[in-house]
Amino acid sequence: VQLVESGGGLVQAGGSLKLSCAASGFTFDDSAIYWFRQAPGKHREGVSCISSSDGVTYYADSVKDRFTISTDNAKNTVYLQMNSLKPEDTAVYYCAADKLYSNYNFKLYLTRSYAMDYWGEGTTVTVAS
Q: How confident is the model at residue 81 (pLDDT cuts 50, 70, 90)?
């Protein structure tokens, strides 16, 4: 199983970045894919998630209307388009996967990073003020 993130970098406040998460080794079409982030000295927090089965999405309030999650099931890849970036968005961004089941609660699992089945190594996003 592999989740490989890419697309991080240094950007000025107000700028944009697009992160990618390439998945392999598990049933992608039956998964919920998450983006979490961890800033220095802070706990890991959920940013967004998407069902690769039906495209349902969920966002943390801190990124709503600025970030957009999407999936390309043909490529087993999930993207996170980040616009209007702020210095407080600076963090290591991690991709994670969880198996979907009936009545899956995206909002709940966005706060339960420990429940994820698989993790990537992370990609660093730095937003300069």
A: very high
In the chain, which ranges are E strands?
2-6, 9-12, 17-24, 31-38, 45-51, 57-59, 67-72, 77-82, 91-99, 118-119, 123-128
Other CB atoms closer than 10 Å to residue 123's CB: what's the count? Answer: 22
What does the pLDDT look like over 12-60, one tens digit per residue? 999 999 999 999 988 888 999 999 999 999 999 999 999 998 899 999 9
Rounded Cα distance, 53 and 77, in Å: 13
Q: Identify which of 113, 96, 124 has the alpha carbon closest to the alpha carbon of residue 40.
A: 124
What order of strands is seen across the sheet that includes strand 17-24?
A: 2-6, 17-24, 77-82, 67-72
